[in-house]
Write a structure and sequence with these properties.
Layout lengths: L1 E11 L7 E10 L2 E7 L9 E6 L4 E4 L1 E6 L15 H16 L2 H17 L2 E8 L2 H11 L2 E8 L13 H12 L6 E7 L7 H14 L2 E6 L3 H11 L3 H7 L7 E5 L5 H10 L2 E4 L1 H6 L7 H6 L4 E3 L12 H16 L7 H7 L2 H6 L17 E4 L12 H8 L5 E6 L2 E5 L2 E2 L4 H12 L27
Parallel strand pairs: 1-4, 1-5, 6-7, 7-8, 8-9, 9-10, 10-11, 11-12, 12-13
Antiparallel strand pairs: 1-2, 2-3, 5-14, 14-15, 15-16, 16-17
Length: 458
């Protein structure tokens, strides 16, 4: 007797052979994929405590969002159409100082998880401040995640004294190591221009000692490259390599302005890359050299970035954009085919964030992180090639069911354990207190705060 049986669909495994099974079934036991089969539907199916009929839909690995800032859903649409540093310094940093309270972070992270689960994302890699509250929310929502406590060299939400950032990060790692099967702690240094060399060295030493992922924004904009070159005489990636930070447990996020030498360094050290095309486009950062990453054998995942700089967490849109953007940039319709984009959003993303052994593909022995796309959705009909259909036609709205670690989190497009309105309400309360750039007629950033810790979600 299995715990869960999914049958009646086309299974896109994303395994090493790119196996696709038609009229297939998949069985789950104790949160693990225990068996896969295919054949005529008139044959008896294995017994299970719960069954899901895919109704001809696509059964595939849950998507892996390899870079996110979950609580930044609070600032979705707050400051659009601005250069990165203007966006950060004039809008996001002040908003964070005023509104990133423990309650608000917890409420925002829960809503962000709901968006991810409903959109077919079963695992994410997050980096932010007050990550303790993020971890609690993610664990409650039942999402798999690698979570990094943010580190910068100036006061930040939850850490008024910059000298305590590394201590807070160490404490977070200690508390969440082996605490939940869904949560893997990490450390997130914001960028080489917000963290000095000694902070970066010490943060990486903490990560190495704990055996966890070290995340960092790197080579995101031309201005960053010029700034790091001026300060240290090297490119951002060369700077990180000079400090001894690059290895297979280092994740370079954005990596838009990496030259041939930078790519060779990353490839030689085994560092992973996260490509965030929509965020890069929206902030005008540039087009990352993805084809050269892939030619060099780099592990490249796909990320949405936070909702303040992308506005959505739809990884299907990221896949579609990835494949099309690089065809346009190269003038080559064969550049970055659909199968490559799909792997970036599944198995390669899982590998980049250190979860490749347990997630990212549908194979016996891996954890059961599975989604089902609704074949009755008009965007999925007709279907000649399921992989192309996933990348070029599907969207978050096509996800019917989401299973994480063998537990059904979304069934028939609805959260199983949570009421969506209940999750949205506290975030809406915070939103009403946030001052948009063109509004000075209601309380918001910079307004008097009676209790000194900002508005609360609950």
């Amino acid at each position: 007797m299995y715990d869960l049986l999914i049958h009646g669909g086309t299974v896109v495994t994303v395994d090493s052979a790119d196996t696709v099974l038609t009229e297939a079934w998949l069985a789950v036991k104790n949160g693990v994929i225990a068996a896969l089969g295919a054949g005529r539907q008139d044959k008896p199916l294995p017994a299970a405590a719960d069954t899901i009929d895919a109704c001809g839909g696509i059964v595939m690995p849950g998507l892996v969002n390899a870079h996110s800032h979950l609580p930044m859903i609070l600032f979705r649409g707050l400051a659009d159409d601005l250069p990165l540093m203007t966006w950060l310094n004039d809008h996001i940093f002040p908003a964070e100082a005023a509104f990133v309270t423990p309650d608000n972070v917890h409420a925002a992270a829960r809503l962000a998880c709901a968006e991810l689960l409903l959109g077919g994302v079963t695992a994410c890699c997050d980096g932010y401040f007050r990550e303790e509250q993020v971890a609690a929310a993610v664990n409650e929502m039942g999402l798999r995640a690698v979570l990094g406590q943010g580190v910068v060299d100036f006061p930040a939400p939850g850490v008024d004294d910059p000298s305590r950032h590394l201590t807070v990060a160490q404490d977070f790692i200690d508390r969440w190591t082996d605490r939940s099967p869904l949560i893997t702690p990490s450390i997130f240094c914001h960028a080489p221009y917000t963290c000095g060399p000694e902070t970066l060295r010490q943060a990486k030493a903490i990560a190495r000692a704990a055996g966890v992922l070290f995340q960092i924004h790197a080579a995101e904009t031309r201005d960053e490259v010029r700034r790091i070159q001026y300060l240290y005489g090297r490119s951002p990636v060369s700077h990180l390599d000079h400090l001894g930070l690059l290895d297979p447990a280092t994740l370079l996020v954005h990596a838009v302005w990496m030259d041939a030498e930078d790519i060779a360094r990353a490839a030689d050290t085994g560092a992973g890359i996260v490509h965030c095309p929509e965020s890069n486009m929206k902030l005008g950062a540039g087009i990352a050299p993805l084809p050269r990453f892939l030619e060099s054998g780099l592990t490249v995942g796909l990320g949405t970035d936070g909702c303040a700089s992308n506005n959505n967490q739809d990884l299907f849109r990221e896949m579609d954009m990835t494949a099309k953007l690089h065809k346009l940039a190269a003038g080559d319709p064969t550049a970055v085919p659909a199968a490559t984009a799909l792997k970036m959003a599944t198995i390669e993303g899982a590998r980049a964030i250190g979860l490749g052994d347990i997630a990212g593909s549908l194979e016996v022995g891996k954890r059961a992180d599975i989604i089902i796309l609704d074949s009755r959705h008009p965007r999925l009909r007709p279907m000649f090639n399921p992989v192309s259909q996933v990348v070029y036609a599907a969207g978050a709205d096509c996800v019917r069911d989401t299973i994480v670690d063998g537990q059904v989190r979304v069934r028939a497009r609805k959260l199983v354990e949570w009421d969506l309105e209940t999750l949205m309400k506290p975030v809406e309360t915070v939103a009403r207190a946030i001052l948009p750039p063109n509004r000075a007629d209601r309380p918001g950033i910079g307004a008097p705060d009676p209790d000194g810790d900002g508005p609360h979600a609950t």
